[in-house]
Amino acid sequence: MTRIVLLGPPGAGKGTQAARLADALGVPAVSTGDIFRANIAGGTELGRTAQGYTSRGELVPDEVTNAMVASRLAEADAAAGFLLDGYPRNVAQVSELDAILARHGVRLDAAVELTADTEVVVGRLLHRATVEGREDDTEPVIRHRLEVYREQTAPIAALYAERGLLVRVDGIGEVADVTERLLTALRPAA
Ligand code: AMP
Q1: Atom 5 of ligand 1 has which residue's CA nearest to it?
Q2: DSSP class of residue 44?
Q3: Residue 187: which pLDDT band, with cuts at 50, 70 and 90?
Q4: Residues whose CB is less than 8 angstroms from the CB of residue 73 and which lie 6 or more positions away in sequence, other chains included
Q5: Is 3 in the pocket of ligand 1 (CB under 6 A)?
Q6: Which residues are the active-site residues?
Q7: Could you tell me the pTM of the whole model?
């Protein structure tokens, strides 16, 4: 059983690697960003609530995000494990994830931080903007998302490090090489 959270700045390749890792480990990848985008596209109430925040590169309020993650992790396919991509993103979400896992009587196996240099990630995201047309991939919003990451998300790596759960992996390189690095780094946990 494998329960992993994937940390790392926007543009570090979390989404791509989460899908590949989840495949290799046989657990679902749960991406909060993808769930928000699907709800926005589908015009649901959750989507309408999230849209203003995601388009500005702000975090969606915790009560909304936490409830969404709690309900997703209660689904049957997540019982045997999961790979969380994009959650938790601040200290309060770390506590909420602890509470969710405690209710299920399980623990996290690892928190993987995918590292990448700021200018490299900005370049990648600007390129992605031309391919995927994501609303939040404009330069000012990208810079703001990086700032939110630095201020709110980066500090949670230290919390997981204190628990002995943090694994840092260089996210720069060929997609397949980075996946190999991740699997090697996770071998003791997974
Ligand atoms: P991502 O696809 O992970 O880059 O997420 C896209 C956007 O969705 C973020 O910029 C936030 O607006 C929102 N989002 C994703 N995950 C979270 C989270 N854990 N907490 C709050 N907002 C989130």
Answers
A1: 33
A2: -
A3: confident
A4: 30, 82, 100, 104
A5: no
A6: 14, 89, 128, 134, 145
A7: 0.94
